[in-house]
Amino acid sequence: MSPEPKQLVLNLFEMNTVSHITHGLWRLPGNNRHRFGDLDYWTELAQLAEDGGFHAVFLADVVGAYDTFRGGPETAIREGLQIPSNDPLLVVPAMAAVTRHLGFGITFSTTYEPPFAFARRMSTLDHLTRGRVGWNVVTSYLPNAARNFGLDGEVPHDRRYEIADEFLDVTYKLWEGSWDDDAVVADADGGVWSDPARVRRIDHVGEHYRVQGPHLSAPSPQRTPVVFQATGSPAGTRFAGRHAEVVFTGGRTAADFRANAQRMRDAAALHGRSADELKFVVQAGVVVGRTEEEAARRWEEYRCHSSVEGILAHRGYPLDLPNLPPQLRVVDALDQAGLPASAVPGVSPETTVGEALRAAAEQREDRYFVVGTPRVVADEIERWLDEDGVDGINLRQYHSFDTLTGFAELVVPELRRRGRLAERPASPQTLRETLFGRGPRLPDTHPATRYRGGANLDVPQEALRFS
Fold it and tell me: Which residue among 176, 230, 358, 372 is buried most deeply as judged by most CB within 10 Å?
């Protein structure tokens, strides 16, 4: 008997902003990006995504402006490049109210804000959504983000992950250890809502945080939200091995992706976690049409509206390439600007400015990109699943809502016909159940669970790290 075909995790990649990662395309006819500040944009999107078979909406976020390109934020502001940008957490209750199954992955940074208030916000969302939320853990990389929170410059990369490690430890203690499952007794006759003997302080004292507790929220359906992480760096890989359940990663080739995923599986094994506790999601560009000609026309329209300056600003490019001679070598331009070659990593010595501009314009046309009919798109997605070992995609939106509705109407039925996307269950599930097919709580091998029942709250974090 042949094995069951691997199922696809299908997320929609979003951000509470005008221009997320498809710069310039807000100008497309009929695009709804200008509505991002309206509540009905988010409720409409959520209903379309749920009806279209998507598992979750993955919400990106930043806490600073892109201000490296041309020495300031002007390009980003002019382009609507993730500015203006609104809080992603606040649109989730509205989307949850009009859906029953759709999950939500919410980006929040561990570097600049303390963990106690955030832990309550996530528990509140887990209650309001009946367990349909996940947390995309990021450490924030924009220099402007650091200055927005009173620092002179960025916290060093690996140091940010050390802070994040303690941040998560605090949230785990609050979510998993502060309240027992049976703490809420709701005894009207006795006048007792919660039993104080089953609620405890966490008394966390660490290098970065001092948190007494108890947690202000009673246990939510998942307790700890699904832990997402976007990474590829060595420090991020080590961090993912300890904490992550779903990793948002990638690679320009299948070999790149497989190597990234294997490093994270190896890191997880060091903490006694098994390979099936991690899923890997890539950002994917899909342009679909009923015919090859229709898909090609659509992709050409997107290319014509794309902003190279927006792309360069997003990448934090240190050179103003559009105003340099196209035949000039990038290394010579860097030298003239007094910048080291490392300021533009991955560029060969012979690359010209013109070639660099063309490469920037085509930056998303890599392994996880396809233009074609539903059959062509489904063939490619199956290749990502079976050859690369990808578990799911965050679908990049070129046009809101045409990207979403086109995928839902044309590709989802083809994936279901091939057994790659299951029909939705009759009863709603938590996000963890949807993604992993098991219970709503973390598996016992996850480090957060060592605090269940109040255990290990007084043990120093460092002593538990590899136990």
Answer: 176
HSE at residue 205, side-chain half, CA atoms within 13 A, is: 3
Tokens 């063939």 map to which residue?
A: 379
Q: What is the pLDDT along the chain (467 residues), one digit of tens a residue?
A: 557 899 999 999 999 999 999 999 999 999 999 999 999 999 999 999 999 999 999 999 999 999 999 999 999 999 999 999 999 999 999 999 999 999 999 999 999 999 999 999 999 999 999 999 999 999 988 999 999 999 998 999 999 999 999 999 999 999 999 999 999 999 999 999 999 999 999 999 999 999 999 999 999 999 999 999 998 889 999 999 999 999 998 878 899 999 999 999 999 999 999 988 999 999 999 999 999 999 999 999 999 999 999 999 999 999 999 999 999 999 999 999 999 988 887 778 789 999 999 888 876 678 899 999 999 999 999 999 999 999 999 999 999 999 999 999 999 999 999 999 988 899 999 999 999 999 999 999 999 999 999 999 988 776 666 55
Distance CA 360, CA 164 (A): 32
Nearest to 278 by CA among 449, 132, 171, 435: 435
Say if 42 falls within a structural domain.
Answer: yes
Same-domain status, 355 and 228: no
Other beta carbons within 10 angstroms of residue 3's beta carbon come to 5
DSSP state of 443: P
State the Cα–Cα distance between residues 416 and 421, nearest whole angstrom.
5
Claim to verify: residue 281 and residue 345 sit in the same structural domain: no
Paired with 286 in beta bridges are: 370
Distance between CA atoms of residues 282 and 248, nearest Å: 6
123, part of any domain: yes
pTM of the prediction?
0.94
Name the phi and psi angles at 148, rounded to 5: -70, -20
The contacts of residue 355 (CB under 8 Å, 6+ apart) are none
Residue 280 Cα distances to 176, 189, 237, 283, 456, angstroms? 25, 50, 12, 10, 30
Of 327, 346, 362, the residue at which a domain comes to its end is 362
Task: Determine, yes or no, domain membership for 191.
Answer: no
Q: With residue 226 as reference, give the H or E element that holds it.
A: strand 226-230
Task: List residues bridging with 227 in a β-sheet.
Answer: 135
* Sequence letter at residue 250: G
- C-alpha 143/C-alpha 157 separation (Å) is 11
* Alpha-helix runs per DSSP H in 22-134: 39-51, 74-79, 92-97, 115-128
Tell me how many domains the chain contains.
2
CB 111 within 8 A of CB 63: no
- Copy the structure tokens of residue 12: 């929609």
| Domain interval for residue 331 | 316-362
Helix (H, G, I), strand (E, B) or coil at 73: coil
